[in-house]
Amino acid sequence: MAIKLKGTGRALPDRVVTNEELVALVDTSDEWIRERTGIGSRHVSTGETVADLAVAAAKKALEDAGATGDEVELILVASCSSEMALPCVACQVQSAIGAHKAVAFDLNAACSGFLFAMHTADAYMASGIYHNALVIGAEVLSKIVNWEDRGTCILFGDGAGAAYFAKDPESQTPLPYVQRSDGTKGQVLACGQHAHKNAFYEGEDNLQYVTMDGREVFRFATRQVPEAILELLGKTALEPDDIDCYVLHQANRRIIESIAKRLQVDIAKFPSNVERVGNTSSASIPILLDELRKEGRIKPGMKVVLSGFGAGLTYGACLLELS
Ligand code: ACO
Fold first, then answer.
1. Active site residue: 19, 108, 252, 279, which one?
2. Which listed residue, 24, 47, 134, 149, has the most CB atoms within 10 A of its CB?
3. 3-class state of residue 317 by DSSP
4. Is residue 104 in a domain?
5. How far away, in angstroms, is 220 Cα from ligand 1 center?
6. Is 43 a catalytic residue?
7. How many domains in the chain?
């Protein structure tokens, strides 16, 4: 494989919001939230921006890899909740870590964003254009969530995760990947951003929050993700049980359990932090990856499947062999 994982890092806001605290805001209960989602608490920004969290996670990933900012050639940030339209978050990271020679840009594929950014980095490295990449997922979803909507505000959390990859000089082979997008299902999970007003058009103030058809998201994730993983493994000589660890997007526990069941793989191979972190969209995979590496639960020699799924709709999976 053309890329090697060299280091990871994560950053979460200090403020932890429990389910009990949400009971004061909306008509819900700790029991309902835990039973339907597996979530017990989440970290919520009290001022930290997407860029603040991305920079903090990036610095930790570089430190973990023993690398410095001036070595970095490519910075990709996946996010759907940046406070700033311009400059992009990746350029803010570039400046903060002194990565003066890095090319930096953002991409948005919602909860699949980290995976899609990683694939982009892999393609650049396999083709020899860049020799390393810092890939980051960072979100402050708490500001695009409607805190009066019990169907969505209970699900999400804020945070960032980063991974530093370096090209394997011995290999030009890209990672095995499956990536899919289905724009016809865009309204299943949506969020408007800016009021549509300009010098020639004065519409209603249409500032919007996240809206979601939860059941449709559930159906989509539990059907498409196992299929994508099986398609991925079909590109290798591996069976689902040959994989040491499945690092899935942490949307909710019931989705993860259902995917494990469909793949007929022991749930123990599907670690989860959704109970403590909630759904952090593009940040969820690298946050969990970092936790697992730092806890020694994933190690060199292991085969790890990463899989993301979310708004767009978008989804995908890749196989990472740790060295
Ligand atoms: N507390 C109490 N009751 C609630 C809450 C809440 N927080 N939210 C909804 N309800 C109520 C509904 O109003 C409804 O009441 P009614 O029967 O009187 O109308 C009842 O619970 C059932 O509502 P459903 O939406 O049918 O509940 P469901 O069992 O489908 O659970 C959930 C909802 C948890 C959102 C589920 O559909 C799900 O897990 N979907 C996946 C969504 C997801 O993970 N999204 C993450 C973002 S997308 C991504 O990351 C890929």
1. 279
2. 134
3. strand
4. yes
5. 15
6. no
7. 2
Give the domain extent around 10: 3-167
pLDDT tier, 170 (very low <50, low <70, confident <90, very high otherwise): confident
Residue 34 in contact with ligand 1 by CB distance below 6 A: no
Query: Is 318 annotated as catalytic?
Result: no
Q: Is 245 a catalytic residue?
A: no
Mutate to test the pocket of ligand 1, among 215, 219, 282, 285 (most ligand atoms within 8 A of CB): 215
Give 227-232 contacts, CB < 8 A, sequence gap 24+: 228/178, 228/180, 228/307, 228/315, 228/316, 228/317, 229/178, 229/259, 229/263, 229/305, 229/307, 229/317, 230/263, 231/178, 231/317, 232/176, 232/177, 232/178, 232/305, 232/317, 232/318, 232/319
Do 150 and 269 lie in a common domain? Answer: no
Ligand 1: does its nearest atom lie under 6 Å from the Cβ of 40? no
**pLDDT, the chain, mean:** 94
Q: Are residues 114 and 19 in the same domain?
A: yes
**Centroid of ligand 1 to alpha carbon of 150 (angstroms):** 8
In this prediction, residue 235 has a pLDDT band, given cuts at 50, 70 and 90, of very high
301 and 196 together in one domain: yes
Is the pTM higher than 0.90? The answer reads: yes
